[in-house]
Write a structure and sequence with these properties.
The complex is a heterodimer of chains A (463) and B (292).
Chain A (H helix, E strand, L loop, with lengths): L4 H23 L21 E13 L33 E14 L4 E9 L4 E10 L6 E9 L20 H6 L6 E10 L5 E9 L14 E9 L5 E9 L10 E9 L6 E20 L4 E20 L10 E23 L2 E2 L4 E21 L2 E15 L1 E2 L2 E2 L5 E13 L2 E11 L13 E14 L7
Antiparallel strand pairs in A: 1-2, 1-21, 2-3, 3-4, 4-5, 5-6, 6-7, 7-10, 8-9, 10-11, 11-12, 12-13, 13-14, 13-15, 15-16, 16-19, 17-18, 19-20, 20-21
Chain B lengths: L1 H18 L1 E5 L2 H11 L3 E5 L14 H9 L2 E4 L9 H8 L11 E3 L32 H18 L4 H26 L5 E3 L5 H7 L3 E4 L10 H11 L5 E5 L5 H10 L3 E4 L9 H14 L3
Parallel strand pairs in B: 1-2, 1-3, 3-4, 5-6, 5-7, 7-8
Helix pairs in contact in B: 2-5, 3-4, 5-6, 6-10, 8-9
Classes of the chains: A mainly beta (463), B alpha/beta (292).
Chain lengths: 463, 292
């Protein structure tokens, strides 16, 4: 959903209005009850809780930073993958960049539902990041979520920019699932077991529209305008238009499952272990070349992974001495039929010129550690790896892509819990051991400065 | 045979859950109060340990596990636990504990709060628009909250209503018994410089003037400029500097060097399994500390 900057302004001013009202309510005398049975916790004062999160980045890199080998659309052949829609990118651009202003509204709708809406506004577009309802009255520790939401698979997938411990997200989330991670429309059923240690299980049934694991194109006409020459030499415009031959299939097309376990390690330590997986019953890509050749990929995909988070909090002042270690691994396979066809006349494609079954198998992982070295300060390091297993194809040709690694360090200062500034340095070792077209190891340094501020009433963060 | 033992297991499980009201308390002082009021009818788990700043905790899986199994959550409220309790309750998926249900109890809702209705503008620091939440260091207000808790527990467990109410009365009587002694001990104390607003209620109870705060604004660490301003203001006066176990001693030490005021680092929460006597002993530590 793209709109003009004007509407983002409008959205912001509407929000301002809403916040002003919430403040006014807050200060009105009838709210100054003392005693009585009312709860005075947050969330009853502001209803809904409204916050704006502002995130800006300045960045410089030693050279253009490409995707990890085997994960990009590849610059040299400029694929357009025909994604139905292009979400705004959480990627980082050179120079000054206002990454986004996130507007978050959440709260109980009635005794039965909670609702949450998060809108990302950038200078050029407005995008619905999440909008869902969640039950609050189901028995036995069951919860049902519906709408558009970030999947609960793994640990970092459902985090937003302001939750990240680094300027950018791990490669695993970005390149196996997409800029927005695994975000989709559907329903989720989860269950917290009444066990002494924390355990939670969930199933998600999703539409299946995710560029990483469930790319969907559907049946559509592809067209091409060309110019032929008449026998007398005059130009003759020709329209080619034909069906892409891909299947139209309404959702749900993506199914995921996850489980999380957290033994009780006392007050100072917490450990959470998770496993997750998913299956997309349909994955499609198409690429239409200007010479009238259509390449399509169609099949299904699987992914599976594990996640682990360990946190130590010794109770030092403002995060001093706190330590977090977290890591995740995901393997993704796509079994796709590659088909290449060309127009035989202006209204149809000929029989496949090439038809071959391909098996893409790729993985990615990251491990990161964060340490509060002084009150309000923390430092972190992260190692990303992508393509340790890297069976990918360019057209129908196997790509000789090696593993890529990224090493990142960051230092951040949080004056209060509502503001944070961060400096980060990354080194990208792309396609390790392979030289690029110019005979270089394709490595790149990146430097970032970031600020992240939150204004208003923001819901508490989940673990 | 199998069916029989399964039935037995079910009976055992339901029997267990009926034996006691399972309470998840946010901080140790609230856990102490729940145990005092509930007696043998309750089983209390404390989610946040003593020695931690309850503002800055994180929702953790162990809290969610405790809340999942709880019949009731006993919190301080007034936004003290706002950074973690709502997320922990949601993560627990326990419908009985959401605000408005019988299983949700917030102490601050039952007392008159200091600084209520102050301007909710965070340029003034981490202010609580609903008032100072730290009533748990005020034994008198704890007694009031204890009474409310007894009523609340009686709604969950009507059979033991009388017991809850008489235990609340006993707690109040014990406080009233101690109070004259605390007050006389603190009488005439010239003033206390606090780190943050946690002891505000107790100082008011003891009639000890609060002469300032080490923090320039709530939640903002002391700056050199603010500390020298304090020294300038308090020069030539008598007083004490009081701060708690999770607050750094640098600012208090600076005041001590400049003004010669004694400093005391004291707990604001009892141990997780502590009883009323331990709570009173902690209050006594504060009472003894206010005289320079």
């Amino acid at each position: 959903m793209r709109t003009k900057p004007l509407s983002s302004l409008l959205a912001l001013s509407l929000l301002g209005l809403a916040m002003g009202q919430a403040q006014a309510q807050e200060n009105s005398p009838e709210n100054h009850h003392s005693g009585g049975d009312n709860a005075v916790t947050s969330g009853t004062g502001f209803n809904p809780a409204i916050s704006v999160i502002l995130d800006g980045v300045f960045s410089r890199s030693s050279r253009e930073v490409e995707e990890p080998a085997g994960f990009g659309d590849g610059d040299e052949h400029g694929h357009g993958h025909g994604h139905g829609e292009e979400g705004h990118s959480h990627g980082v651009e050179e120079g000054f960049q206002l990454r986004e202003a996130e507007l978050v509204l959440s709260g109980p709708v009635d005794p039965y539902f909670d609702m949450m809406v998060q809108v990302g506004v950038t200078p050029s577009e407005v995008e619905l990041e999440e909008a869902y309802l969640q039950t609050r009255a189901l028995p036995y520790g069951l919860q049902l979520k519906g709408g558009q939401f970030l999947s609960d698979i793994g640990y970092i997938n459902k985090q937003h920019i302001h939750d990240w411990d680094f300027v950018d997200q791990p490669w695993m989330r970005e390149f196996l699932f997409g800029d927005e991670g695994l975000s989709d429309t559907g329903v989720q059923l989860s269950w917290v077991a009444p066990t002494a240690f924390y355990s939670r299980f969930g199933l998600e049934v999703l539409e299946g529209d995710n560029e990483g694991v469930a790319n969907y194109v559907g049946e559509e006409e592809v067209s091409l305008s060309s110019v032929n020459q008449n026998p007398d030499g005059t130009p003759q415009p020709v329209e080619f238009e034909a069906d892409n031959g891909l299947e139209d299939k309404s959702g749900p097309r993506l199914f995921t499952a996850f489980a999380k376990f957290a033994p009780d390690l006392g007050y100072d330590r917490a450990l959470q272990l998770g496993v997750f997986g998913g299956h997309a019953t349909l994955y499609q890509e198409q690429e239409f070349h200007s010479d009238g050749e259509l390449e399509t990929l169609e099949g299904d995909s699987w992914f599976a992974g594990v996640d682990a988070v360990y946190k130590y909090s010794g109770g030092g002042a403002m995060g001093q001495g706190d330590f977090t270690l977290q890591g995740e691994y995901t393997l993704r396979t796509k079994e796709l039929k590659f088909t290449e066809r060309s127009f035989i006349n202006s209204e149809e494609f000929g029989p496949p010129e090439e038809e071959v079954d391909l098996r893409f198998k790729q993985d990615a992982l990251y491990v990161q550690g964060l340490y509060g070295f002084a009150p309000r300060w923390n430092a972190g390091v992260r190692v990303d790896a992508a393509g340790l297993t890297n069976d990918s194809f360019e057209g129908s040709e196997p790509q000789d892509a090696g593993a890529s690694f990224r090493y990142t360090g960051q230092v951040s200062f949080a004056p209060t819990e509502f503001s944070r500034i961060r400096a980060q340095l990354s080194y990208n070792d792309l396609d390790h051991g392979h030289e690029d077209d110019h005979g270089h190891e394709p490595g790149a340094w990146q430097f970032f400065l970031q600020y992240n501020l939150s204004l208003g009433q923001h819901g508490a963060h989940a673990f | 045979m199998i069916r029989f033992s399964l039935l037995g297991l079910l009976m055992l499980l339901s029997g267990l859950s009926q034996a006691a009201v399972n309470i998840a308390a946010t901080v140790p002082n609230m856990g102490m109060l729940a145990r005092e009021i509930g007696g043998e009818h309750v089983q209390v788990t404390v989610m946040a340990p003593p020695g931690r700043d309850p503002h800055y905790l994180e929702a953790r899986p162990s809290m969610m596990a405790a809340l999942r199994r709880a019949d009731m959550v006993v919190s301080v409220g007034a936004e003290l636990e706002t950074g973690w309790l709502p997320a922990a309750i949601q993560g627990a998926g326990n419908r009985e504990l959401v605000p408005g249900k019988k299983g949700y109890f917030e102490g601050a809702a039952h007392i008159k709060r200091l600084n209520e209705g102050q301007q909710a503008d965070r340029s003034r620091g981490d202010v609580h628009p609903r008032g100072n939440p730290h009533f748990y260091l005020d034994p008198q207000r704890m007694a009031t909250v204890g009474q409310a808790l007894a009523e609340h527990l009686a709604r969950l467990d009507p059979d033991n209503r009388d017991d809850y109410l008489s235990r609340a009365t006993a707690f109040r009587q014990a406080v009233e018994e101690q109070l004259p002694q605390w007050r006389s001990q603190a009488a005439g104390a010239p003033g206390a410089l606090l780190y943050h607003g946690e002891p505000d209620y107790l100082m008011a109870l003891l009639d000890v003037p609060v002469v300032g705060y080490i923090e320039p604004k709530p939640g903002i660490p002391p700056t050199a400029r603010h500390l020298s301003t304090l020294v300038g203001e308090l020069e030539g006066r008598q007083g004490v500097v009081l701060y708690t176990d999770f607050q750094p001693g640098k600012g208090p030490d600076f005041i001590h060097r400049k003004l010669g005021w004694p400093t005391h680092q004291l707990p604001i929460q009892v141990a997780t399994e502590a009883d009323r006597d331990a709570y009173f002993a902690m209050i006594r530590q504060w009472v003894e500390a206010v005289q320079p």
